[in-house]
Design a protein that fits this description.
This protein has 398 residues and is of the alpha+beta class. The chain folds into two domains: 5-195 and 337-395, 3-Layer(bba) Sandwich (FAD/NAD(P)-binding domain), CATH 3.50.50.60; 200-335, Elongation Factor Tu (Ef-tu), domain 3 (Beta Barrel), CATH 2.40.30. Helices cover 28% and strands 24% of the residues. The chain has helices at 12-23, 39-43, 70-75, 78-87, 107-120, 178-185, 204-207, 243-249, 268-274, 282-286, 292-300, 315-326, 382-395; strands at residues 5-8, 28-31, 50-53, 61-62, 92-94, 99-102, 123-125, 130-136, 146-151, 154-158, 160-163, 190-196, 200-201, 217-224, 227-235, 239-241, 258-261, 328-330, 334-335, 343-348, 366-368, 376-377. The protein has a seven-stranded antiparallel β-sheet. The protein has a five-stranded parallel β-sheet with strand order 7-2-1-11-21, with helices on one face. A three-stranded antiparallel β-sheet has the order 3-6-5. Strand 5 (92-94) and strand 6 (99-102) form a beta hairpin. Helix 1 (12-23) packs parallel to helix 5 and helix 9 packs antiparallel against helix 12 (315-326). The longest helix has 14 residues, at 107-120. The chain binds dihydroflavine-adenine dinucleotide. The site of dihydroflavine-adenine dinucleotide has 37 residues, from helix 1, helix 2 and helix 13. Residues 194-343 form the RsdA/BaiN/AoA(So)-like insert domain. InterPro entries: BaiN-like, BaiN-like_dom_sf, FAD/NAD-bd_sf, RsdA/BaiN/AoA(So)-like_dom, RsdA/BaiN/AoA(So)_Rossmann. Pfam families: HI0933_like, HI0933_like_1st. Keywords: FAD, Flavoprotein. This is NAD(P)/FAD-dependent oxidoreductase.
C-alpha cells in the first residue's frame, strides 16, 4: 500500500502524531504489533492516566541534551491536551503537584485518541509484525526518498516514516527495542539506556534491619547530586520505592549513596536540644513522626550511638543524631529493572534530530517521537506530555 506517512507504534505518541497528520490531510497508516491499542495508557496512573501536568518546564525532563525538548513543549502545551478532553466531555481532576488524572479511567483517553484518528481518516493495523524496513534514497538532490515497510499484514511505502515504539519498560505491554534497532540501522546514535522511575534495591545484608518493614511510608526529601524531591518514600522487602524514590531513581548513579532527610519539616538539632532533660527513649520519641518498627530499626543502626533515654546523650551525640536524621545515607545495589520501571531513560540521541520536527538530520523523512527518544520526564504526567508534544511536532511536519 502506498501512503504519505507510516507510523510504527500506536501508543501515546504514535496516536497523537497520526491524528495531527491525518487532520492536515495526509494519508496515514499506523502499524502496531500488539493486539490491544495503547496498553501503557490503559495501565497508567493506576488505571486513571496521569495524562499531563499543569506545570510543565524543560527542567522536568532528563536528557543528555537538556534544551532539546523546549521547542516541542512550547508548541503543544498541557492546555492543548486539556482542550481535547473538554471537547470529548472527559472528566478529570488535579491530584497533588499539578498532576491531572481522568475521573473514570484511562480508557477514555484511548477512546478519544482513537476517535480523533478514525475521524481524520488515519488507517490502523494492529497485530502487525514489522519484518523489514528498507530505504530507497532519493535519486536527485531535493527529491524525497522512500521507506518500504514489510509486515505480516502486507507492504507499506511512504516518504515519511515515524518511529513511535516507546521504551523497554513492562515488556508484557508490548514494549520492544525495535525503535533503537531502527536507529542503529540508519546509523543514528543511542544515548545509554537505563530503567527510570523504578524501585531501588539494597544488598540483603545491608537491608536486613528494614526488610521486614514492608509498607512503612515516610514523608522525606531524597537527594542525589543537585536533584531533590520531597514526597513519600516506601520501605519494601528489597529496598526502597514510593514517589520520592521513583523520582530520584532516574538521576541515581550506581555505587553512589542517596541522601535522605527523614524529617524534612523539622530542625532536629533544635528539637533534640529541647528534650535534653527527657527520660524518653530516643526511638519512643521518634514514634511521634515514624512508625515504631522503623524508629527502632533506625536507632539500632546509628553508628556508635545506642538507643538511650534522651537525657543520657551529650551535645555532640545529639548533633550526630540530628545530622543522621537529616542525612540518612542509603547506597542502593541496583534497580528492579525494566519489569518494574515506568520509563526508559536514554534513547535516540537528540543531536541527530531536529527539535522542531523530530526528523533525523541525516535521513530526511525519518522521525522519532515519544519515549524512544532520549527525553525522559519526571513522575507526574510529564512522560505523556512529551509523547503528546513530540507526536504533535512530527504530525505537523510529516
Ligand atoms: P508507548 O509505549 O505508549 O507506545 C509504543 C507502542 O509501540 C506500543 O503500542 C507497542 O505495542 C508498539 N511497539 C513496540 N514495539 C513494536 C514493534 N516491534 N512493532 C510494532 N509495534 C511495536 N506517564 C505519564 O505521563 N503518566 C502516567 O500516569 C504514567 N503511568 C505509567 C504507568 C506505568 C505502569 C508505565 C509502565 C508507564 C507509565 N507512564 C506514565 C509512562 C508512559 O506510559 C510512557 O512514557 C508513554 O506511554 C510513552 O509513549 P510512547 O508512545 O512513546 O510509547
Amino acid at each position: 500500500m502506498k501512503t504519505d506517512v507510516i507510523i510504527i507504534g500506536a501508543g501515546a505518541a504514535g496516536l497523537m502524531c497520526a491524528m495531527q497528520a491525518a487532520q492536515r490531510g495526509r494519508a496515514v497508516v499506523l502499524l502496531d504489533h500488539s493486539k490491544k491499542l495503547a496498553e501503557k495508557i490503559r495501565i497508567s496512573g493506576g488505571g486513571n492516566c496521569n495524562f499531563t501536568n499543569l506545570d510543565v518546564r524543560p527542567e522536568n525532563f532528563i536528557s543528555s541534551n537538556p534544551d532539546f525538548c523546549r521547542s516541542a513543549l512550547a508548541r503543544y502545551k498541557p492546555q492543548d491536551f486539556i482542550a481535547l478532553l473538554y471537547k470529548h466531555n472527559i472528566a478529570f481532576h488535579e491530584k497533588d503537584l499539578g498532576q491531572l488524572f481522568c475521573d473514570d479511567g484511562s480508557e477514555a483517553i484511548i477512546a478519544m485518541l482513537r476517535g480523533e484518528c478514525d475521524e481524520a481518516g488515519a488507517k490502523r493495523f494492529m497485530n502487525c509484525e514489522i519484518e523489514e524496513i528498507t530505504y530507497d534514497a532519493p535519486k536527485e538532490e531535493g527529491a524525497k526518498g522512500k521507506f518500504n515497510v514489510s509486515t505480516s499484514r502486507g507492504e507499506f511505502t511512504a516518504a515519511s516514516l515515524v518511529v513511535a515504539t516507546g521504551g523497554l519498560s513492562i515488556p508484557k505491554t508490548g514494549a520492544t527495542p525495535f525503535g533503537y534497532h531502527v536507529a542503529e540501522q540508519f546509523g543514528i546514535p543511542i544515548a545509554k539506556l537505563r530503567p527510570g522511575l523504578v524501585p531501588l534495591s539494597v544488598a540483603p545484608d545491608d537491608w536486613k534491619p528494614y526488610a521486614d518493614l514492608t509498607g512503612v511510608s515516610l514523608d522525606v526529601t531524597v537527594s542525589f547530586g543537585k536533584q531533590s524531591f520531597r514526597e513519600n518514600m516506601l520501605v519494601t522487602h528489597r529496598g526502597l520505592s514510593g514517589p520520592a524514590i521513583l523520582q530520584i531513581s532516574s538521576y541515581w548513579q550506581h555505587g553512589q549513596p542517596l541522601h535522605i532527610d527523614l524529617l524534612p519539616a523539622l530542625d532536629m538539632a533544635v528539637q533534640l536540644d529541647e528534650q535534653k532533660g527527657s527520660k524518653k527513649l530516643l526511638s519512643n520519641y521518634l514514634t511521634q513522626w515514624w512508625p515504631k518498627s522503623f524508629a527502632e530499626a533506625w536507632c539500632e543502626q546509628l553508628p556508635g550511638i545506642e538507643n538511650l533515654p534522651l537525657n543520657q546523650y551529650n551535645d555532640k551525640q545529639r548533633k550526630l543524631i540530628a545530622a543522621s536524621i537529616h542525612d540518612w545515607q542509603v547506597t542502593p545495589s541496583g534497580t528492579l529493572g525494566y519489569t518494574k520501571a515506568e520509563v526508559t531513560c536514554g534513547g535516540v540521541d537528540t543531536r541527530a534530530l531536529s527539535s522542531k520536527t523530530m526528523e533525523c538530520n541525516e535521513v530526511p523523512g525519518l522521525y522519532f517521537i515519544g519515549e524512544v527518544v532520549d527525553v525522559t520526564g519526571q513522575l507526574g504526567g510529564y512522560n505523556f506530555q512529551w509523547a503528546w508534544a513530540s507526536g504533535h511536532a512530527a504530525g505537523q511536519a510529516v
